[in-house]
């Protein structure tokens, strides 16, 4: 909280943009190999910012319950999907790092991309749930 205002809404947009962009970079790196390092850096920064956004969610939970009258179940569903997306992007990052160390490079890069696409879907749904809590009453 910053002056009674939760930090979570200020922080959530960074991981959404970075992690979705990292997915596009991974897709592009199938054709342009110089994008792999950029996708790796974007994934790392996106995950770190996602962890920060996730950790500030508790303060936003209290605010949403008291000021916005949001149901606890809706908040926890949003929180669960945010965690699932972070774990999925973490797996994508791990596969990308293994890709750098492997001799059979292409299958690990493709696996990292597929996992990142799944993570993008989970992240999009988590964002949708967050938006529902704020904008739909």
From TrEMBL:
Provide the organism lineage as a comma list. Answer: Bacteria, Bacillati, Bacillota, Bacilli, Bacillales
* Residues that span the membrane, as ranges: 12-30, 37-56, 81-100, 107-127
Q: Does the keyword Transmembrane apply?
A: yes
What is the protein's given name?
DUF2231 domain-containing protein
Q: Where's the DUF2231 domain? A: 4-136
Q: Which Pfam families match?
A: DUF2231 (PF09990)
Q: Which UniProt keywords apply?
A: Membrane, Transmembrane, Transmembrane helix
